[in-house]
Amino acid sequence: MTKYNTPADLKYTQSDEWVRLENDEAVIGVSDYAQHALSDVVYVELPAVGATFAAGATFGSVESVKAASDLRMPIGGTVTAINEAIEGSPELVNNHPYDTGWFIRIKPTDVSETSKLMSNEAYDTYCSTRD
Known about the structure:
- Helix content is about 20%, strand content about 35%.
- It is of the alpha+beta class.
- The protein has one domain (about 20-110): CATH 2.40.50.100.
């Protein structure tokens, strides 16, 4: 059993982002593993609505008391919304990484790109090799 929360309805990247498909959009955030590794998140930089990114491209950054990390796109798409709540309350990333702590919503370029991402079981195994 893993010590991190990794919901089964999400897909994960090796750079610790997650993506959840919701109708014709996708929601992106960072995993429970990532928020634990970062520790207390103090600042989040997000892109402008309308910006388009390819899978793997940097779309923003997150800073904590420990480090600053780039945020990478799990799949390509155009930003349709940003989570303004985390800009004012970055601790939401630590407290609720899978609901109120999300980063951006996108209109995916190609939803089949999610097939290249890890399941929660594969991500748990990947995380266990890094602890």
